[in-house]
Structure formats: structure tokens, C-alpha cells
Write a structure and sequence with these properties.
One of its GO terms (molecular function) is ATP hydrolysis activity. The protein has 250 residues and is an alpha/beta fold. The protein has eight helices and ten strands. It has one domain: Rossmann fold (3-Layer(aba) Sandwich).
């Protein structure tokens, strides 16, 4: 579904500029949930901007379903870390979610059905007429996720989407996301700096070092469906967590 080959991104000249992405290569299969784990400043967000077509790569190749990325792909959606800035405060929840669908070529009726379905999936079917500033942080991020889902993407990129919410809300959003992933059968690339979150969500975890280069690939064989108490009490969860912590430190 997604293939990255020798991706490199330099801000400025090749000789004296800032290297954000070094030599990055990986493949994500159809309907796979892959987490990208790395410390702050290692180039995770720059990588996502290149994958989404929002920033041009300096060199290398990115393919989505076999087609080169030279701009935002039609079948790809992006959930940003800062949900409060990605939502339009003068639009209702319903209009925020339906806004991008005009560029998808949906009819008004198709857009209405897709919007209602996405808001129902994130548990906000009863808040359609509210404005973003009337919602909690967790609810605002649900709106951002619903907007991406309504677009009906094949690939969903997520940039630390739960980093700004409290621990309980974060756990709830993680479980919500797993339910959405199964319901929509979408391929997810999820960037985080939280080891527990990566192990809990993913089929596979990639560890990056700066400038964004893969150092470790860990397969997560934990049984699904997962839950916050049972899954995190498994010995294999602790082993994977320790392995990834060691990879990050070294």
C-alpha cells in the first residue's frame, strides 16, 4: 500500500542545510497498522509531510498503491497533532467534517451519508451542530479523525494525534482508533513518541533515529482485540516495551 525508498529531506542546500530525513526505507502493507516511534526532533513529522505530499522530498521515492507521490494523494488523509488549529472554528462539527468532501467529488447526498457515518464512528453523532470551541480537547480530536474518515482514505497518516490530551482520554482514543481501524479496514501509519501506545496499537513498530532513519523493526504479535488492562499485563507486552526502550536509548 505504501512504499518508501531511500527518502531524504534536506532544508536548504545539500551541503550546508539541515538534514531532517536521512536515508529512510520501509514498506506498509494493505490494512496494516504501523507505528513510527522516535524521540522529539528525529524527523517524524517531516517524514509524514513528505509521505502526504505536503512537502517535496529532496531525493528518494514514495509510492502509494504503486503511484509516485508528487502531491497530496487522493486516497490518503492526514490527522495533525494540533487538532485545535486544524479545525475551522466558525464551522460546526458537521461542516468541518464535510468540508473536504467537495474535493473528493462526492455528491451532497454522498457527503451527508459519509459525514454522518464518520461522526457516528467517533461517537459524536449527537454533536453535529456544535462548534469546535464548545467541545473538549478529546472531542475536537475526534472531529479531526471523523473528517479524515469521511474522506474514505485507503491510507491514514496520524502525527502524534493524542499527545495533547490527558491520560484517560488518550486511552479512550486509542481504543476508539482500533475500533475505527477494524471497521474501515484502512492502512494506518501512526507517529508517536510513546512506547506503550506504539506497542498497544500496532502490528509493527519502526524505531527512528535522527535524521529519520530506521534502526529497529519490531513485529507486535499481541492478540487482538486488545484492551488497556489485559493486553498491557501480558509478558510479551513488557518484553516488547523493553526492547523498544533499549532501541530508542541506543
Amino acid at each position: 500500500m505504501l512504499e518508501v525508498s531511500h527518502l531524504r529531506k534536506v532544508y536548504g542546500s545539500e551541503e550546508t542545510g539541515n538534514v531532517a530525513v536521512g536515508d529512510l526505507s520501509f514498506v506498509v502493507g494493505e490494512k496494516e497498522f504501523v507505528c513510527i516511534l522516535g524521540s522529539s526532533g528525529c524527523g517524524k513529522t517531516t517524514m509524514l509531510r513528505c509521505l502526504s505530499g505536503l512537502a517535496p522530498a529532496t531525493s528518494g521515492q514514495i509510492l502509494v498503491e504503486g503511484s509516485p507521490v508528487d502531491g497530496p494523494p487522493e486516497d490518503l488523509a492526514y490527522v495533525f497533532q494540533d487538532y485545535s488549529r486544524s479545525l475551522l472554528p466558525w464551522m460546526t462539527v458537521e461542516r468541518n467534517v464535510s468540508f473536504p468532501l467537495r474535493y473528493k467529488g462526492m455528491s451532497k447526498q454522498e457527503a451527508k451519508i459519509a459525514t454522518a457515518d464518520a461522526l457516528d464512528a467517533v461517537g459524536l453523532g449527537d454533536r453535529t451542530k456544535a462548534f469546535p470551541w464548545q467541545l473538549s480537547g478529546g472531542m475536537q480530536q475526534r472531529v479531526a479523525i471523523a473528517r479524515a474518515l469521511a474522506y474514505r482514505p485507503r491510507v491514514l497518516l496520524m502525527d502524534e494525534p493524542f499527545a495533547s490530551v490527558d491520560a484517560q482520554t488518550r486511552s479512550d482514543l486509542e481504543d476508539l482508533l482500533l475500533g475505527i481501524w477494524e471497521r474501515y479496514a484502512v492502512t494506518i501509519v501512526f507517529v508517536t513518541h510513546d512506547i506503550d501506545e506504539a506497542v498497544y496499537l500496532a502490528d509493527r513498530v519502526l524505531v527512528l533515529k535522527a535524521p529519520a532513519t530506521v534502526t529497529t523493526v519490531a513485529d507486535v504479535d499481541l492478540p487482538r482485540p486488545r484492551d488497556q488492562i489485559t493486553t498491557k499485563a501480558l509478558p510479551e507486552f513488557a518484553r516488547l516495551r523493553s526492547e523498544l526502550l533499549s532501541a530508542l536509548r541506543h
